Amino acid sequence: DPEQYAKVEKAVHDLLDAFNVNWEDPNYTDTPKRVAKAYMEYWANGYAREAEDEVTVFPNSSGSEDLVMVKDMKFYSMCSHHLAPFTGYGAIAYMADENLLGLSKLGRILDIYARRFQLQERIGAQTADKIMQLLRPKGVMVVLYDVEHLCMSSRGVKLHEASTTTVATRGIFKEDAQLRAEVMSLINK
Amino acid sequence: DPEQYAKVEKAVHDLLDAFNVNWEDPNYTDTPKRVAKAYMEYWANGYAREAEDEVTVFPNSSGSEDLVMVKDMKFYSMCSHHLAPFTGYGAIAYMADENLLGLSKLGRILDIYARRFQLQERIGAQTADKIMQLLRPKGVMVVLYDVEHLCMSSRGVKLHEASTTTVATRGIFKEDAQLRAEVMSLINK
Amino acid sequence: DPEQYAKVEKAVHDLLDAFNVNWEDPNYTDTPKRVAKAYMEYWANGYAREAEDEVTVFPNSSGSEDLVMVKDMKFYSMCSHHLAPFTGYGAIAYMADENLLGLSKLGRILDIYARRFQLQERIGAQTADKIMQLLRPKGVMVVLYDVEHLCMSSRGVKLHEASTTTVATRGIFKEDAQLRAEVMSLINK
Amino acid sequence: DPEQYAKVEKAVHDLLDAFNVNWEDPNYTDTPKRVAKAYMEYWANGYAREAEDEVTVFPNSSGSEDLVMVKDMKFYSMCSHHLAPFTGYGAIAYMADENLLGLSKLGRILDIYARRFQLQERIGAQTADKIMQLLRPKGVMVVLYDVEHLCMSSRGVKLHEASTTTVATRGIFKEDAQLRAEVMSLINK
Amino acid sequence: DPEQYAKVEKAVHDLLDAFNVNWEDPNYTDTPKRVAKAYMEYWANGYAREAEDEVTVFPNSSGSEDLVMVKDMKFYSMCSHHLAPFTGYGAIAYMADENLLGLSKLGRILDIYARRFQLQERIGAQTADKIMQLLRPKGVMVVLYDVEHLCMSSRGVKLHEASTTTVATRGIFKEDAQLRAEVMSLINK
Amino acid sequence: DPEQYAKVEKAVHDLLDAFNVNWEDPNYTDTPKRVAKAYMEYWANGYAREAEDEVTVFPNSSGSEDLVMVKDMKFYSMCSHHLAPFTGYGAIAYMADENLLGLSKLGRILDIYARRFQLQERIGAQTADKIMQLLRPKGVMVVLYDVEHLCMSSRGVKLHEASTTTVATRGIFKEDAQLRAEVMSLINK
Amino acid sequence: DPEQYAKVEKAVHDLLDAFNVNWEDPNYTDTPKRVAKAYMEYWANGYAREAEDEVTVFPNSSGSEDLVMVKDMKFYSMCSHHLAPFTGYGAIAYMADENLLGLSKLGRILDIYARRFQLQERIGAQTADKIMQLLRPKGVMVVLYDVEHLCMSSRGVKLHEASTTTVATRGIFKEDAQLRAEVMSLINK
Amino acid sequence: DPEQYAKVEKAVHDLLDAFNVNWEDPNYTDTPKRVAKAYMEYWANGYAREAEDEVTVFPNSSGSEDLVMVKDMKFYSMCSHHLAPFTGYGAIAYMADENLLGLSKLGRILDIYARRFQLQERIGAQTADKIMQLLRPKGVMVVLYDVEHLCMSSRGVKLHEASTTTVATRGIFKEDAQLRAEVMSLINK
Amino acid sequence: DPEQYAKVEKAVHDLLDAFNVNWEDPNYTDTPKRVAKAYMEYWANGYAREAEDEVTVFPNSSGSEDLVMVKDMKFYSMCSHHLAPFTGYGAIAYMADENLLGLSKLGRILDIYARRFQLQERIGAQTADKIMQLLRPKGVMVVLYDVEHLCMSSRGVKLHEASTTTVATRGIFKEDAQLRAEVMSLINK
Amino acid sequence: DPEQYAKVEKAVHDLLDAFNVNWEDPNYTDTPKRVAKAYMEYWANGYAREAEDEVTVFPNSSGSEDLVMVKDMKFYSMCSHHLAPFTGYGAIAYMADENLLGLSKLGRILDIYARRFQLQERIGAQTADKIMQLLRPKGVMVVLYDVEHLCMSSRGVKLHEASTTTVATRGIFKEDAQLRAEVMSLINK
Ligand SMILES: [Zn+2]
Ligand SMILES: [Zn+2]
Ligand SMILES: [Zn+2]
Ligand SMILES: [Zn+2]
Ligand SMILES: [Zn+2]
Ligand SMILES: [Zn+2]
Ligand SMILES: [Zn+2]
Ligand SMILES: [Zn+2]
Ligand SMILES: [Zn+2]
Ligand SMILES: [Zn+2]
């Protein structure tokens, strides 16, 4: 969307201009263009994507109910309060029922919700809800951990080592504390 | 408060003077001023602050009851028995009900109670109680860990590796041992 | 099977040829031969093997029902979706009934199912099922962990640190959550 | 500077507006204000500061020529090419001649040059040059390490584990490779 | 190039067919398509790229001769002898003369040479040579480390823990052993 | 010295009183007494001690010139600028000539200079000078490392991870860079 | 007690004399004196101390029932079977009822029972019993861990890596396995 | 037993002779003697020992029922299937009833059963049974972990990182899963 | 060689028989067969192999003189003095001249010399000499490290943590200490 | 020597008696006997041993001058000043000339000098001198590291983390600093 691109470019130009950067210095000249491109292609690309377009669901022919988890999925997001990046890792575990999902698709759904101006709590909840809706598993658990919020770490309080963890559970993971403990144990492995 | 500042400055001057420091040495001359400033601005600034002034509470529009935790929040306090610093990390977990709190505000409440002449047990309890009062969550759990008390480590007993842990639980965290185990597991991650 | 060997060799030749490799360069000349050999002898050798041929079962003379586990068994497989390698570690625990198995045989059964074009979920399930069938233990638990899928890590998403874990349980391990927790704890040791 | 503040606030508003954020949602309403405040007070506060104002220089009465180093000083900056944060650690070593500097002042000078729209190479060079100018030591060495550039880690290439190191040497550190090796060894301790 | 794509797809089809995979199983049906796409877009995309197209060179206005290094750049390649992946990390250090390079461009040049059917020794040498040609620095050093060759680790010898390191030096890094030692020390940090 | 004790007690009383602590609360009532005792017995006990009284020197009968080092000696001091504790580790290495020192005496000399209101640079220099004077070794090297200054870590800048290292060398350690490198290597072991 | 001191000195003299040490060598001459002093002041000083003399108990005004633990308290003891040192760490957790204890007092009680000729099992039991008696808490748990017995490690069997753990529980810690698990989890943090 | 010694010596001679070693080379000449001695004195000395001869049992005068564990006891055994060494660590925990055992005796009983041609499963079971018989405790738990079987690691399969764990439980440890979890937690400390 | 096989089988039978193993127990019955097979196929297979048969040498067309190293190659050998296994890791570095070697061939040459009754010093020397002879590089360096000798660790002295390192250098690595230091640094990475 | 044994037994009896231990308590009754045995057989057994009796020297037939090192050899000694144990690790490196030594003999010589009432400095020097005398190598280097002196750690100063390192060099290791650096690097591996 070229109009959107132009709006972002202009906003970035104005932001830098407020600090009187030297527009002749080649290190600044094209910055508004570069930043606009980065927002469109990476940092806020989640607005233009739909999980349904990127994910295919298979029938679970074997009827297996064993546990599947992908962990240590690095994600990048921007906090809606301060426009500051926050980054960390996601783990998604599910117990299949009639459908299965390709392993890399778990990361893709997480990515779609992370690449927006977000709250960490919301990313986990939206990811969990979407997997419930697409896959209809017996349950899903989304843990976002080792998350550093730059708005917390880079400003006035002494919180630069702090990290935030959120846990979203749906289906049997909400009811069964033993199952949650098992997932925790596998994440900590 | 300039009067308070003057009192602190004079007390520090008298303390150093008891050891006959050389007031000509530029490394001591302005020390009483510097120390008074440090007490007012950092080490005892909690007396002049109110959690209510620094924290805003939002309605929990999504009604989410998922777990939220911030951990590894470095805190600094001074022990009321020996005026010696004690420092460590805090983790605060809560289960929201109708209200939400900005993530960095958890650290701020902890900071307000730490920046006084304190007992470690009290910091945890006051922080937990204040969050219950401001946020009315389903429960809160405050763990202060890896806490080194300089009055313990720097004096006669061989305890310089020792660390103190305190756990304060309110609401469902008091009743539900499984939930506490989950928080422990996430802290240890 | 020389015919199979020739088919693989030709396919590899065609694949490289699509990229116009220089067949005079000695670093390419014999590559199709080498790759065909590697597929037959290692990467897909599981198709030509039967667990029954490689494993002997002993009567459990002592009637011991103690837990036995072998862990950190490195395995190599190729993903059926992308023909890309995926590798990780397997742990197999069982509780004996009337039969026993040599310790290195657990790794062999895992290897037979891994050395094919596979799904990770299937390797675990087939291994667990085969051990149930051959040994008739009280139960078996197969955990595949720290598994890196090259198709996930080497392509477009930022998942090169991600790892996948699958858990397959049969018999008493399916019913007894405490027993599963014990195995997790021993794996994490 | 309220005018500067207003310009930043407007630019941020325009940027978010390009993505059609819901201005009614309390998670966005005050974001432009918050971000403007963050830029003025933290992220770009280096433009309004002068090292000379924050640093006092003492005569080196003892004439000591021993090595002094502060390391693991966390710094936060924003890259001039992409307006993305980059953060890491700085170590500064110097060999005193006639003047001395308070230990925490080394971090302050680094902070003044980091809190701008910068290149990592420039932060190190400007920090080293300023210390040479203010302190006139026998030499200074500035190492910026474990630096993560979000513009590198959060975009398309697979560089999210990459870190950048820059080394700036002045005076005897430029000439004496043994001395540099000693500093490296102390940083790696 | 659709013709190239078709050739790869057919070759992959023939390879799988040699093992009689069940083409009805949805886990195999589209594999040739997926693999062809993966080769074109990721695993062998280096053949269609030129470093000159992706890199811009700036004049080094400050004339700085300080050391710059990017390390822990994950790379993916395929060995020309066995068509097996090999992956590891690259570190590139250079001492600028009249030109500078954007930090992320070092990773891009490495990527261009890695994404082919390669020898590890060649990737390092080609990367170093290209940087010398494009940038004309005083010298460059390319270290590829922690490199696992799947053809080595997944076959008959017991080398699955082995890793390969190659070092390519050009310009002053070839002559100055102290400088090389400094880079080693910074990589090991 | 009861007079000194009384002065310290009064100063501490005045300091707390400036913050209106509740003198009825048993956690404050005896604090001035306790703190005065702590200063006399531990935190500032170095003023009342002389290295000569605590150390005996033996003739080096074997004439050995081998290297001796004690490292990881925890020390506690208080900074003369802010009356804040700073703590870390010391390593002392020497090359004997005609005299020897009991191993624990190295720690004692360090302790005597640390238990005062000090600069880190001075502790190292005074320790090194005193050992040269008492022992007349071929040389001595004192490294103080992993030193955390609470005045740096607990106040406004983001330096709570920073640590300070100082190196004082006398005799052959000043001249011989190889020897210094050996000590560094042994400290890093 | 000078008589006791003389008896110890004579015993040590006789022990060394059995090995014909050279009493002229200054490294032996005063050893009996030094050892007697060490036994009286450190290694066996527990016989002359009473926990009641060193510990004060406060009323628990807040009525808090939160968990308090001090861990990693290094202790030194001598085994009653072989007169050989054994050393390790202690953790003490309690749940207060009507009384509270200063944090450093937990270490002191442990020290009083350790500084005797002891069994590890007894130290834990005596410490737990004394705390129950002095404090009347809801319960107490004493874990002694990472304990190396020199009589085990330095003699004929290959046990120099072995460590001994003992757990003593009183009150609610004896009944409540969940509570014990929480303490274990906090110790392992 | 000189006859046994002679038989072992001859067998070793014959084994080496099968590989035509050069008996003149002093590195082989006395090998049969040395190996026979090693078997008699170390590797198979368990056949000539009885636990009853090396262990004394004391009455448990205090009636203590607290947990006692010794862990990280290195053991050496030889596998009965391949005559290859297997080595690892043992942990033994027991809950005393009327009798007590010296701490180093636990290692001795383990050693007696390990120093034979054995199965790992049997060593654990025999050790547990013998302790039950000698000590009549409330229960015992024997965990053998981090056990490397050279017959597994040094031969054809890629299992050189694999380790085997066996758990033998008797008495209350068999029934009480919570108690087993506590021991696991202490082993993992 | 069936005769050799029969001799080994008989020797193993005689060895076990000296300890009166129960030949009826299926855990012993086929042991002599299994052991003979293991010696022929793995433990002593080096006697029947020639490096020349397993290695091909290529001309070094690029004339590159960059450093190549493979490290962490696990090897297994048996000590000629005690017939006990010793295992560890090998690193081989070389500087090519006119010839090159496939990377996995370095491990193969090491394996050929390790799979005999050996001295560690000899394995390194023979490996280095053979590479010099086959490849005629500018130099080669073979480091065998983290080597555990079971004859040392499993017998009477307390050396079970000890490891042996040997370094063999040929060509420029013998003369150039800087180059050796570089290899050491890369091994320690 | 029964007379020596009796003297040690009596001395130990007198030492315990000074503390009025209860001789009826079976934990003390036989302690004097046990301790006397321990001194004779382990703690002071070095007085009755000669290195010449336990070590055989071979001609170095291959004339190899490569480096050989054994490290991480645990040793136990007793300090001559306080009769307190000190324990740590030894590394011995040598460069052979005409003679060679069995690898485990290095540990034996160290043990002979450690098992006495000693100074750490002397153990290193005596070990180095004895190896020079027995083996006549080009040089030897003995490093004793991570040495904890219980007399230092268990008494009044806060040195329980401190460790002592001593380095003794003879022959070419005394002259060649590069060679010493190589040994340090291999120890630190
Ligand atoms: Zn934010
Ligand atoms: Zn205190
Ligand atoms: Zn795939
Ligand atoms: Zn950038
Ligand atoms: Zn290959
Ligand atoms: Zn200060
Ligand atoms: Zn004992
Ligand atoms: Zn076996
Ligand atoms: Zn041997
Ligand atoms: Zn001593």
Provide structural commentary:
Chain A is of the alpha+beta class and 189 residues long. Chain A has two domains: 2-43; 54-188, 2-Layer Sandwich (GTP Cyclohydrolase I, domain 2). Chain A is built from nine helices and seven strands. Chain A has helices spanning 2-17, 26-29, 31-43, 51-54, 103-114, 120-135, 150-153, 172-175, 177-188; strands at residues 57-59, 67-79, 85-95, 99-101, 117-118, 139-149, 163-171. The N and C termini of chain A lie far apart (44 Å). Chains A and C meet through strand 2, helix 5 and helix 9 of A and helix 6, strand 6, strand 7 and helix 9 of C. Strand 7 of chain G pairs antiparallel with strand 2 (67-79) of chain H, so a sheet runs across the interface. Bound molecules: zinc ion (ZN) (10 copies). One zinc ion (ZN) is lined by residues 79, 81-82, 84, 149, 151 of chain J.
Provide the CATH superfamily of the largest domain in chain A: GTP cyclohydrolase I, C-terminal domain/NADPH-dependent 7-cyano-7-deazaguanine reductase, N-terminal domain
User: Which ions, cofactors or small ligands are bound in this entry?
Assistant: zinc ion
Order of strands side by side in the largest beta sheet of chain A? Answer: 5-2-3-6-7
Proportion in helices of chain A: 40-55%
CATH topology of the largest domain in chain A: GTP Cyclohydrolase I, domain 2
Straight-line distance between termini of chain A:
44 Å
State the secondary-structure class of chain A.
Answer: alpha+beta
CATH architecture of the largest domain in chain A: 2-Layer Sandwich
Count of distinct strands of chain A: 7
Number of domains of chain A: 2
Order of secondary-structure elements of chain A: HHHHEEEEHEHEHEHH
The share of residues in extended strands of chain A comes to 25-35%
Largest sheet of chain A: 5 strands, mixed
Number of helices of chain A: 9
Largest interface: H-I, 46 and 46 residues
CATH class annotation of the largest domain in chain A: Alpha Beta
